[in-house]
Amino acid sequence: xxxxxxxxxxxxxxxxxxxxxxxxxxxxxxxxxxxxxxxxxxxxxxxxxxxxxxxxxxxxxxxxxxxxxxxxxxxxxxxxxxxxxxxxxxxxxxxxxxxxxxxxxxxxxxxxxxxxxxxxxxxxxxxxxxxxxxxxxxxxxxxxxxxxxxxxxxxxxxxxxxxxxxxxxxxxxxxxxxxxxxxxxxxxxxxxxxxxxxxxxxxxxxxxxxxxxxxxxxxxxxxxxxxxxxxxxxxxxxxxxxxxxxxxxxxxxxxxxxxxxxxxxxxxxxxxxxxxxxxxxxxxxxxxxxxxxxxxxxxxxxxxxxxxxxxxxxxxxxxxxxxxxxxxxxxxxx
Length: 334
Ligand SMILES: *[C@@H]1O[C@H](CO)[C@@H](O)[C@H](O)[C@H]1NC(C)=O
Ligand SMILES: *[C@@H]1O[C@H](CO)[C@@H](O)[C@H](O)[C@H]1NC(C)=O
Hints:
The chain is α+β, with helices and mostly antiparallel strands. It contains 9 helices and 14 strands. The protein folds into 2 domains: 1-93, no CATH class; 99-333, no CATH class. The strands form 3 sheets. Strands 3, 4, 5, 6, 7, 8, 10 and 14 form an 8-stranded antiparallel beta sheet that branches. Strand 4 (86-92) and strand 5 (100-106) form a beta hairpin. The radius of gyration is 20 Å and the shape is globular. It binds 2-acetamido-2-deoxy-beta-D-glucopyranose (NAG) (2 copies). One 2-acetamido-2-deoxy-beta-D-glucopyranose is lined by residues 29, 31, 55-57.
């Protein structure tokens, strides 16, 4: 269905501008007639602009779609990068005024697989000091997954590096939740409103170039990366405390999101979602990372690193709860 939709859109696009198609590459202005195409797809009911005609130019983000064409409902839309690549993304058009583009999800497909297949946000090639940055997904142009599969697999779309944003929003959604229920099923939803991304190049791709997610590039806590306060849309500091193991509680402060922290053994973790990490056992709370975690290697290597240190989902000692271990982390930009 998606392939057909894209083909139809391409045809529509080509027919409308046969003469200067080449000139358009990189400009991002593709005036596309979508009314009949979209009308055939029930799932796109919620994607139609309110009180407007159905002609619009493709945009680079949900924020642009909201500001230029006044879309107000959550749903999946087609976007175009500055280089002319087309992709689909989910828009949250309601949280705090909307305009949030889903650009990634971090999903743990098998917590017992230690840097094995599916650990795209760390390494799929085993823990090895000779590959300190692992798969490098935080700082490269690789893309994977699809929007509807964001709670069943990892997702990274071109928006990750293409969109210029100021803030991020995070939803922790139970694995395998269907798209239409993400918002209601989320165990936590929060966003920043500090414009912090502007200081680091406008997206995580740029931020992680300044703060490489790489083993042995720094030490805890002196070299830990930037952080921002968060505002809860669903959840609280108490809820965050409840999700992680009791021994972790003294090491973090809820109410933040922090990037690129190191642990005691100089392994690099990509993102501490919901907390500021003060201690040095961050592998039980922070997610994603480089390609090598020295402690009991490869036991801490993976997308949800060592959430299972004292048993999977046991919520004992350092182990995180089953609830957070089995929830994908959805990342939005605005
Ligand atoms: C699409 O972009 C073109 C070129 O900038 C502009 O002339 C046209 O008005 C735009 N259409 C819409 C619906 O915004
Ligand atoms: C780590 O990588 C090196 C170099 O590629 C290789 O020789 C070594 O066998 C690897 N170690 C493990 C444990 O896979």
